[in-house]
Amino acid sequence: KAFGTSTRSPLAQAGVGLQGYLAVLPLLFFTSFVFYLWLTRLEYPASLQEVAEILSRPHAPWLQVYFFFVTILLAPCFEEMLFRGLLFPILVRWWGLGPGILVSALAFAGIHFHLPSLASLGVMAMGLSLAYLYSGSLLTAMVFHSAFNAVNLALLLLLRN
């Protein structure tokens, strides 16, 4: 069902989103490491996503606030409505649960147009689909996605300094 329905409170849905994010982290780290080693072996250059490069540069304070808003709130909400709210239920109805999770994850990872992060974004997207499926709530996936973006943005800013 598109956009899901849940009887849980919004706070409980958000809590499940944070738990999902924490649960996926070990697999995310492992997948990122193995994929990085594979790309290194193929002599593919390591790089940040273009948006990560932009976010890691110093900016005026008002622009930094805007980037935080887009990265942590707007993008996760939009992408989750598109990928888990619309695409995922359609793919599950057409092809079944497993292919629906896999194809929507590949589509999500693919739209970021960055080979070095393809595997980790795919794993994250599978986790987002499972969190959405488990909770029945798009808010769960949005919080999960926001947590992922917020932690990565914080790490970028720490590395910048």
Shape label: globular
Average pLDDT, rounded to a whole number, is: 91
Instruction: Report the sheet with the most strands, covering strand number, pairing sense and barrel closure.
Output: none
What is the end-to-end distance? 45 Å
- Runs in which pLDDT lies below 50 for 5 or more consecutive residues are none
Order of helices and strands: HHHHHH
User: β content, as a range?
Assistant: under 5%
Report the structural category. mainly alpha
What Rg is obtained from the alpha carbons, in whole angstroms? 16 Å
Total beta strands: 0
Tally of alpha and pi helices: 6
Share of residues in helices: over 70%
Oligomer: single chain
Structural notes for this entry:
This protein is mainly α and 161 residues long. Helices cover 80% and strands 0% of the residues. It contains six helices and no strands. Helix 3 runs antiparallel to helix 4. The longest helix is centred in the middle third of the chain and has 35 residues. The chain is globular and about 45 Å long. The mean pLDDT is 91.
